[in-house]
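step=encode ok
step=design start
structure_in=
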Protein backbone atom coordinates (compact mmCIF):
# COMPACT_ATOMS: atom_id res chain seq x y z
CA UNK A 1 0.00 0.00 0.00
CA UNK A 2 1.32 3.45 -0.91
CA UNK A 3 2.01 5.50 2.22
CA UNK A 4 1.58 9.30 2.13
CA UNK A 5 2.69 11.77 4.80
CA UNK A 6 0.41 14.82 5.05
CA UNK A 7 2.01 17.81 6.80
CA UNK A 8 -0.85 20.26 7.35
CA UNK A 9 -1.82 22.33 10.41
CA UNK A 10 -5.38 23.29 9.44
CA UNK A 11 -7.57 20.54 10.97
CA UNK A 12 -10.33 20.79 8.37
CA UNK A 13 -7.95 20.48 5.41
CA UNK A 14 -5.96 17.72 7.11
CA UNK A 15 -9.13 15.72 7.79
CA UNK A 16 -10.40 16.18 4.22
CA UNK A 17 -7.05 15.09 2.77
CA UNK A 18 -6.86 12.06 5.04
CA UNK A 19 -10.40 10.95 4.20
CA UNK A 20 -10.04 11.50 0.47
CA UNK A 21 -6.66 9.75 0.21
CA UNK A 22 -7.79 6.79 2.31
CA UNK A 23 -10.81 6.43 0.03
CA UNK A 24 -8.34 6.20 -2.87
CA UNK A 25 -6.59 3.32 -1.10
CA UNK A 26 -3.57 5.15 0.31
CA UNK A 27 -2.23 4.78 3.83
CA UNK A 28 -2.06 8.25 5.40
CA UNK A 29 -0.08 9.72 8.30
CA UNK A 30 -0.73 13.24 9.59
CA UNK A 31 1.65 15.81 11.11
CA UNK A 32 0.47 19.30 12.05
CA UNK A 33 3.69 20.93 13.23
CA UNK A 34 6.71 21.97 11.18
CA UNK A 35 9.18 21.09 13.93
CA UNK A 36 7.99 17.46 13.97
CA UNK A 37 7.70 17.08 10.21
CA UNK A 38 11.36 16.45 9.39
CA UNK A 39 11.88 13.73 12.01
CA UNK A 40 8.66 11.98 11.00
CA UNK A 41 9.49 12.14 7.29
CA UNK A 42 12.99 10.76 7.84
CA UNK A 43 11.99 8.25 10.50
CA UNK A 44 9.45 6.23 8.50
CA UNK A 45 9.26 4.94 4.93
CA UNK A 46 6.86 7.10 2.91
CA UNK A 47 6.18 7.10 -0.81
CA UNK A 48 5.10 10.75 -1.13
CA UNK A 49 4.72 13.87 1.02
CA UNK A 50 2.00 16.54 0.87
CA UNK A 51 3.56 19.57 2.53
CA UNK A 52 1.76 22.77 3.52
CA UNK A 53 3.90 25.90 3.17
CA UNK A 54 2.46 27.86 6.11
CA UNK A 55 3.18 25.82 9.24
CA UNK A 56 3.94 26.68 12.88
CA UNK A 57 7.60 26.60 13.99
CA UNK A 58 9.08 25.76 10.57
CA UNK A 59 7.65 26.60 7.15
CA UNK A 60 7.28 24.20 4.24
CA UNK A 61 10.18 25.69 2.26
CA UNK A 62 12.61 25.05 5.13
CA UNK A 63 11.23 21.54 5.66
CA UNK A 64 11.56 20.66 1.98
CA UNK A 65 15.10 22.06 1.82
CA UNK A 66 16.14 20.13 4.93
CA UNK A 67 14.64 16.85 3.71
CA UNK A 68 16.50 17.13 0.41
CA UNK A 69 19.75 17.96 2.19
CA UNK A 70 19.21 14.85 4.31
CA UNK A 71 19.01 12.80 1.12
CA UNK A 72 15.27 12.12 1.01
CA UNK A 73 14.34 11.61 -2.64
CA UNK A 74 10.63 10.75 -2.54
CA UNK A 75 8.18 13.09 -4.33
CA UNK A 76 7.07 16.21 -2.44
CA UNK A 77 4.00 18.27 -3.36
CA UNK A 78 3.69 21.71 -1.78
CA UNK A 79 0.25 22.90 -0.70
CA UNK A 80 0.32 26.68 -0.81
CA UNK A 81 -2.00 29.66 -0.61
CA UNK A 82 0.76 31.75 -2.17
CA UNK A 83 0.09 32.70 -5.77
CA UNK A 84 3.14 34.79 -6.64
CA UNK A 85 5.40 33.21 -9.24
CA UNK A 86 8.57 33.89 -7.21
CA UNK A 87 7.21 31.89 -4.28
CA UNK A 88 6.26 28.98 -6.52
CA UNK A 89 9.73 29.04 -8.09
CA UNK A 90 11.27 29.02 -4.62
CA UNK A 91 9.31 25.89 -3.76
CA UNK A 92 10.58 24.08 -6.84
CA UNK A 93 14.12 25.34 -6.31
CA UNK A 94 14.31 23.94 -2.76
CA UNK A 95 13.41 20.50 -4.07
CA UNK A 96 9.63 20.21 -4.37
CA UNK A 97 8.40 18.19 -7.33
CA UNK A 98 5.08 19.99 -7.72
CA UNK A 99 2.80 22.48 -6.02
CA UNK A 100 -0.96 22.89 -5.68
CA UNK A 101 -2.49 26.26 -4.86
CA UNK A 102 -5.26 26.45 -2.25
CA UNK A 103 -8.16 26.13 -2.64
CA UNK A 104 -7.45 23.10 -4.78
CA UNK A 105 -9.56 20.49 -6.51
CA UNK A 106 -9.26 17.07 -4.80
CA UNK A 107 -9.55 15.48 -8.24
CA UNK A 108 -6.60 17.49 -9.55
CA UNK A 109 -4.54 16.70 -6.47
CA UNK A 110 -5.21 12.98 -6.87
CA UNK A 111 -4.11 13.18 -10.50
CA UNK A 112 -0.88 14.93 -9.57
CA UNK A 113 -0.18 12.35 -6.88
CA UNK A 114 -0.69 9.50 -9.35
CA UNK A 115 1.57 11.19 -11.90
CA UNK A 116 4.40 11.66 -9.41
CA UNK A 117 4.09 8.13 -8.07
CA UNK A 118 4.29 6.76 -11.62
CA UNK A 119 7.39 8.80 -12.41
CA UNK A 120 9.05 7.86 -9.12
CA UNK A 121 8.54 4.12 -9.66
CA UNK A 122 11.21 1.86 -11.20
CA UNK A 123 9.95 0.24 -14.40
CA UNK A 124 11.35 -3.28 -14.99
CA UNK A 125 12.76 -4.36 -18.32
CA UNK A 126 10.67 -6.30 -20.85
CA UNK A 127 11.93 -9.58 -19.41
CA UNK A 128 10.52 -8.64 -16.02
CA UNK A 129 13.98 -8.38 -14.48
CA UNK A 130 16.08 -5.25 -14.03
CA UNK A 131 18.70 -4.73 -16.70
CA UNK A 132 22.04 -3.61 -15.27
CA UNK A 133 23.21 -2.20 -18.60
CA UNK A 134 20.06 -0.09 -18.99
CA UNK A 135 19.74 1.00 -15.39
CA UNK A 136 23.33 2.20 -14.82
CA UNK A 137 24.24 4.98 -17.21
CA UNK A 138 27.88 6.09 -17.11
CA UNK A 139 29.58 9.23 -18.39
CA UNK A 140 33.00 10.50 -17.35
CA UNK A 141 33.47 9.89 -13.64
CA UNK A 142 29.69 9.84 -13.06
CA UNK A 143 27.10 7.10 -13.12
CA UNK A 144 23.35 7.39 -12.89
CA UNK A 145 21.84 4.34 -11.20
CA UNK A 146 18.21 4.26 -12.33
CA UNK A 147 17.36 1.25 -10.17
CA UNK A 148 18.48 3.02 -6.99
CA UNK A 149 17.62 6.47 -8.42
CA UNK A 150 21.02 7.73 -7.37
CA UNK A 151 23.83 9.78 -8.90
CA UNK A 152 27.39 8.81 -8.06
CA UNK A 153 30.65 10.55 -8.92
CA UNK A 154 33.97 8.78 -8.43
CA UNK A 155 31.97 6.11 -6.62
CA UNK A 156 30.53 8.55 -4.07
CA UNK A 157 26.81 9.29 -3.84
CA UNK A 158 25.97 12.90 -4.77
CA UNK A 159 23.24 14.84 -2.96
CA UNK A 160 20.71 15.33 -5.76
CA UNK A 161 17.04 16.28 -5.77
CA UNK A 162 14.37 14.09 -7.34
CA UNK A 163 13.81 16.68 -10.07
CA UNK A 164 17.52 16.83 -10.90
CA UNK A 165 17.63 13.04 -11.17
CA UNK A 166 14.59 13.02 -13.45
CA UNK A 167 16.22 15.67 -15.65
CA UNK A 168 19.46 13.73 -15.85
CA UNK A 169 17.59 10.52 -16.65
CA UNK A 170 15.80 12.28 -19.52
CA UNK A 171 19.14 13.51 -20.86
CA UNK A 172 21.04 10.21 -20.67
CA UNK A 173 18.17 8.40 -22.38
CA UNK A 174 18.46 10.89 -25.23
CA UNK A 175 22.22 11.29 -25.58
CA UNK A 176 23.21 13.56 -28.42
CA UNK A 177 19.65 14.73 -29.06
CA UNK A 178 18.30 18.22 -28.59
CA UNK A 179 15.69 18.38 -25.82
CA UNK A 180 13.55 21.50 -25.89
CA UNK A 181 12.37 23.07 -22.65
CA UNK A 182 8.84 22.01 -23.57
CA UNK A 183 9.89 18.39 -23.89
CA UNK A 184 11.83 18.53 -20.61
CA UNK A 185 8.77 20.02 -18.94
CA UNK A 186 6.56 17.18 -20.20
CA UNK A 187 9.05 14.42 -19.32
CA UNK A 188 10.04 15.67 -15.88
CA UNK A 189 7.10 17.68 -14.51
CA UNK A 190 4.29 16.29 -16.67
CA UNK A 191 1.60 17.98 -18.71
CA UNK A 192 -0.58 20.59 -17.06
CA UNK A 193 2.14 21.72 -14.62
CA UNK A 194 2.92 25.45 -14.68
CA UNK A 195 6.72 25.67 -14.67
CA UNK A 196 8.63 28.57 -16.20
CA UNK A 197 11.76 28.37 -18.36
CA UNK A 198 13.66 29.92 -15.48
CA UNK A 199 12.88 26.97 -13.21
CA UNK A 200 14.20 24.51 -15.79
CA UNK A 201 17.32 26.63 -16.33
CA UNK A 202 17.97 26.84 -12.58
CA UNK A 203 17.82 23.06 -12.26
CA UNK A 204 20.24 22.72 -15.17
CA UNK A 205 22.68 25.10 -13.46
CA UNK A 206 22.47 23.08 -10.24
CA UNK A 207 22.91 19.79 -12.08
CA UNK A 208 25.99 21.07 -13.92
CA UNK A 209 27.66 21.83 -10.60
CA UNK A 210 27.29 18.17 -9.69
CA UNK A 211 28.40 16.46 -12.90
CA UNK A 212 30.72 18.91 -14.67
CA UNK A 213 34.41 19.52 -13.93
CA UNK A 214 33.94 23.10 -15.15
CA UNK A 215 30.25 24.09 -14.81
CA UNK A 216 30.84 27.41 -16.59
CA UNK A 217 32.13 25.53 -19.66
CA UNK A 218 30.10 22.31 -19.56
CA UNK A 219 31.25 19.13 -21.25
CA UNK A 220 27.99 17.19 -20.92
CA UNK A 221 24.97 19.50 -20.50
CA UNK A 222 25.24 21.77 -23.52
CA UNK A 223 22.98 24.80 -24.07
CA UNK A 224 21.54 25.18 -27.55
CA UNK A 225 20.72 28.87 -27.73
CA UNK A 226 17.04 29.62 -28.11
CA UNK A 227 16.10 25.94 -28.37
CA UNK A 228 16.98 23.91 -25.28
CA UNK A 229 19.73 21.55 -24.17
CA UNK A 230 21.70 18.56 -25.46
CA UNK A 231 23.51 15.89 -23.46
CA UNK A 232 26.88 14.91 -24.95
CA UNK A 233 28.21 11.99 -22.97
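sequence_out=
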Amino acid sequence: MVKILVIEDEPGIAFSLETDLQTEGYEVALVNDGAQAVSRALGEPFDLILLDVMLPNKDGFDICRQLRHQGLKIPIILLTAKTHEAEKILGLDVGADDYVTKPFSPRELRARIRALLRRASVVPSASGNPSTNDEIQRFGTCELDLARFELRRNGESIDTTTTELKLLAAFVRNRGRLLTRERLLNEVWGTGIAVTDRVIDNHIVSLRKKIEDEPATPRYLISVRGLGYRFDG
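step=design ok
step=annotate ok -> Residues 122-133 have pLDDT under 50 and may be disordered.
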